[in-house]
Design brief:
Blueprint lengths: L2 E10 L2 E11 L4 E5 L6 H9 L6 E6 L2 E2 L10 E4 L11 H11 L5 H11 L15 H14 L4 E5 L7 H16 L4 E6 L2 H7 L2 E6 L2 E7 H6 L4 H6 L6 E8 L2 E4 L4 E3 L10 E7 L4 E2 L7 E13 L2 E8 L2 E8 L9 E6 L5 E3 L7 E3 L3
Helix pairs in contact: 2-3, 2-4, 3-4
Length: 356
């Protein structure tokens, strides 16, 4: 089932949720919809499901216009971030419900198969209220899979689970989807989750689709500075430079010799970007030293994120281990010029050079 969106827009009151989206979703493909809160992810899924009608544009399934087709007339299943199950039905009855609606054959066998697939067959006789959050979401996903819909939409389905549950279930879901021919759209705010899931990624920001590409390509070769920001956590550090005579110079005085993928940049103005993982507090051959002032230390598990200020630019350094640096202390960090991304000037500047 190929889906094509042509100039799809959605306006609610005075708020624009979707802005002239053009998108082609291949049949049987797995697509991560990546964007921050209010990027338009849920609005996109609801329009595709038929729960909401777009204000403008068209949705084409294969060769048929389904823009105004209701959700009941679309082969679609949707899983939400909340654990939505029938509270008075047992787990077995919840999973069986869509099969009974369409009067499917061998319902018991199909329910057992889905229960085994999601590791919940031992819970069949319990009610949803007797389950943990992770178990309830597994039931909701099994019920969605029972519909055997051509299109499966998942709206941040793991966001309310703890880290270990989220990581384990995410890996299981990817294997399940890989074995099926269903077209999947999986919405998330987490770039790390997009990278772990793979497939293709639809990068969204403020109701627009910034990029739709294989996930690793979208990460390593973001279409624009805006797309790179969405696909970076912690945020990408961006700074403006002037390129001349083989060197990129920032207003702060920072000078970066151009080598490798940056060597062919023509003289002119650019915006450079670098991720926290490509900066270090330790000197190594080939790294460029930068003087900066400590603004904040953030410890996350076994990693430390050091927020630094150089001139009028904020940088973030990601280090393995737990460290503390005094606020306002002066220190030197090192950026890797081989990992710089170069964009045209401006917030939406297009990619000019990437290390891949």
């Amino acid at each position: 089932m190929a889906l094509v969106l042509e100039r799809v827009g959605k306006v609610v009151g005075k708020e624009t949720h979707l802005r002239e989206i053009d998108l082609k979703i291949e049949p049987g493909s797995f697509n991560v919809v990546l964007g921050r809160t209010l990027a338009g992810k849920t609005s996109l899924l609801r329009v595709l499901a038929g729960l909401d009608r777009p204000t403008s544009g068209w949705i084409i399934k294969d060769t048929r216009d389904i823009t105004r087709t209701t959700v009941r007339d679309r082969s679609v299943a949707m899983v939400y971030q909340q654990f939505i199950n029938y509270p008075s039905f047992t787990v077995r009855a919840n999973i069986a419900s869509p099969l009974r609606v369409r009067k499917a054959r061998d319902i018991d066998a199909r329910v057992r198969e889905l229960g085994a697939m999601l590791g919940i067959e031992h819970l069949f006789d319990r009610l949803p209220g007797q389950l943990s959050g992770g178990q309830q979401q597994r039931v909701a996903i099994a019920r969605a899979l029972a519909k055997d819909a051509e299109l499966l939409l998942l709206d941040e389905p793991l966001v309310n689970l703890d880290y270990k549950l989220r990581e384990g279930l995410r890996d299981e879901l990817r294997a399940i989807f890989r074995a099926r021919s269903t077209t999947v759209l999986y919405a998330t705010t987490d770039p790390a989750e997009a990278l772990a899931l793979g497939g293709k990624t639809i990068v969204m920001h403020e109701g627009r689709v910034l990029q739709h590409a294989p996930t690793l390509e979208a990460y390593h070769q973001p279409a624009s500075a805006a797309a790179a920001l969405v696909f970076s956590d912690p945020p990408l550090s961006l700074f403006d430079v002037t390129v001349a005579d083989g060197t990129a110079k920032a207003a702060s005085g920072l000078a970066i010799p151009l080598a490798g993928h940056l060597r062919e940049l023509a003289a002119g103005e650019y915006r450079f970007g670098i991720r926290a993982s490509d900066c270090s507090l330790h000197a190594r051959a080939g790294l460029v030293p930068v003087q900066a002032k400590v603004e904040l230390n953030e410890i996350s598990g076994s990693e430390t994120f050091v927020y630094l200020r150089h001139g009028d630019v904020d940088f973030i350094v990601q280090e393995t281990g737990v460290f503390h640096h005094d606020q306002d202390a002066e220190l030197t960090f090192y950026l890797d010029p081989a990992r710089l991304l170069a964009f045209k000037p401006g917030a939406d500047g297009a990619l000019v050079a990437s290390y891949r």
